[in-house]
Write a structure and sequence with these properties.
This protein is an alpha+beta fold. It has 15 helices and 18 strands. The chain folds into 2 domains: 293 residues, Zn peptidases (Aminopeptidase, 3-Layer(aba) Sandwich), CATH 3.40.630; 137 residues, Alpha-Beta Plaits (2-Layer Sandwich). The strands form 5 sheets. A 6-stranded mixed beta sheet has the order 1-2-6-3-7-17, with helices on both faces. It has a 4-stranded antiparallel beta sheet with strand order 11-13-9-14. A 3-stranded antiparallel beta sheet has the order 4-5-18. Helix 3 packs parallel to helix 4. The chain is elongated and about 85 Å long. It starts with 14 loop residues before the first helix and ends with a helix.
Length: 480
């Protein structure tokens, strides 16, 4: 007589089972905080020149956390043959046949500490103050890892199963530019297939206000160097007939923008996607005014906002130009000379429907056109990354909005991001256009990438409660 094989049974999504998972997490919130602290003590800086062994140690710690949680197929994945690649941590739980599969993303590498003197407490000694956890990586993005793990733990500890199938991929080089990600996605495409992706590496609009990011700007950057002399010369002996390279560069850069701050490159706005009436209404309803925006940005008195539109329409849905760095000599080395050359780094943030390569070509052409004083102009491209935009019509978004509404006790908002997250578009593309939900834990006071990075512990708990609820809501939504 053959014993029948017992099929895996997913967790039910009734209110009693969900409440048990939520109650378990409430009783064990401190465990999640302590696990986060343990990860944040590892200085997993992925930049060149830092100890690569610490990034590997971080990946190993994430894998150990996955195993303690009860996940399957836990493995550290290394991209051999890709120079400079750091290890990924992977795990899965695929015992819910017929239920949706979600791919959960975060990253375990961090930014360098920066200026140690500007930290109130040591960057790699996580410290709690005034309801926040301070330390490098506490917000960006080790909190994202623990949100996923704590939510899964709550279900497994109470129901012994999850309502959905999950796959977790934790990257080890996001802060350094995700150099191996394209190869990783191509190589493991079949293993990563899912019905929806949750990328936990973004920011809430405000503390306590749950947000889903639906638009990211892309980025085009170039370096420009102007040369007029073989070597620096005395400004008194030669100034007048001899052109000034720094002045020439200043003239080139000044012609890139208009007096209102808009970009003065012909055709640059031709492809910019207009906001829909609903999008304009959504931005207008955000709990922010010009004064608060100015305060959060740290604008000095007397400086004015640019563009003549809502500041977040300008920040999220309009292109912008910035001179990121400029050098002719230095303040320490300033003397009475004409410098032989001057250098600058120029960036344009691009938005939906703009072609980054086309923007790059227009920027380079504008820089090279009619160089003042006949100086030599060399332009070097650093890269051109496109923008990303998604609608919120997929069932997975309805599930996420409901889960966030219940988890935070506030109506969630759909927001944009003025910055770029290059890995989002490749993820969605490689997974056949699966809905990508960008749901983060940071807030405007997290200081990610800066000194005194911190995480709101209240939002950390609410984000985890929302993730617990999301798994149940995803089943109810029929997101397959």
């Amino acid at each position: 007589m053959t014993t029948p094989t017992l099929l895996p049974t997913p967790a039910p999504v009734d209110s009693v089972t969900l409440d048990r998972a939520l109650s378990w997490h409430a009783a064990h919130e401190r465990d999640a905080v302590e696990e986060l602290k343990a990860l944040a003590r590892i200085p997993s800086v992925s930049f060149d020149g830092f100890d690569r062994a610490r990034v590997r140690e971080s990946a190993e710690a994430v894998c150990a956390l996955f195993k303690r949680t009860g996940l399957d197929n836990v493995q550290m994945i290394e991209m051999e043959g890709v120079p400079g690649a750091h290890p990924y941590a992977y795990a899965e739980w695929l015992r819910a046949p017929g239920r949706p599969t979600i791919l959960l993303y975060a990253h375990h590498d961090v930014q360098p500490a920066g200026d140690l003197a500007r930290w109130t407490s040591p960057p790699f000694e996580p410290t709690e103050r005034d309801g926040r956890l301070f330390g490098r990586g506490c917000a960006d993005d080790k909190a994202g890892i623990l949100v996923h793990v704590a939510a899964i733990d709550a279900w497994l500890k109470t129901a012994g199963a999850l309502p959905v199938n999950v796959k977790l991929v934790i990257e080890g080089e996001e802060e350094a530019g995700s150099g191996s990600l394209a190869a990783f996605l191509a190589k493991h495409k079949s293993m990563l297939q899912a019905d929806a992706i949750v990328l936990t590496d973004t920011c809430n609009f405000d503390t306590g206000l749950p947000s889903i990011t639906t638009a990211l700007r892309g980025l085009v950057t170039v370096q420009v160097e102007v040369r007029a002399l073989k070597q620096p010369v005395h400004s008194g002996m030669w100034g007048g007939p001899v052109p000034d390279a720094a002045m020439a560069l200043s003239k080139i850069l000044s012609k890139l923008s208009n007096d209102d701050g808009s970009i003065a490159i012909p055709g640059i706005y031709d492809r910019v996607r207009a906001l829909t009436p609903d999008e304009k209404k959504s931005i207008a309803a955000l709990p922010v005014d010009d004064a608060l925006f100015r305060k959060q940005a740290g604008m000095l008195e007397g400086t004015r906002l640019l563009g003549g539109r809502h500041p977040y329409e300008m920040n999220w849905r309009m292109p912008s130009l910035a001179i990121n760095a400029i050098q002719a000599s230095s303040r320490a080395d300033a003397r009475n000379i004409l410098v032989e050359s001057a250098w600058a780094r120029v960036g344009i943030r691009v938005v939906a429907d703009m072609d980054p390569k086309e923007v790059e070509a227009k920027l380079i052409a504008a820089i090279r056109e009619n160089p003042p004083f006949g100086v030599q102009v060399e332009v070097k491209s650093e890269g051109a990354v496109g923008s990303w935009y998604t609608s919120t019509e997929a069932p997975a978004f309805r599930a996420a909005f409901q889960a966030l509404r219940d988890g935070y006790g506030k109506e969630p908002v759909a927001i944009g991001c003025g910055g770029s997250i290059p890995f989002v578009e490749p993820f969605a593309r490689e997974l056949g256009g699966a809905p990508a939900l960008l749901i983060g834990v940071e807030d405007p006071y997290s200081n990610a990438h800066s000194e005194d990075e911190s995480l709101s512990l209240s939002d950390f708990a609410k984000a985890t409660k929302s993730a617990i609820r999301f798994y149940a809501e995803l089943v109810k939504s029929g997101a397959r």
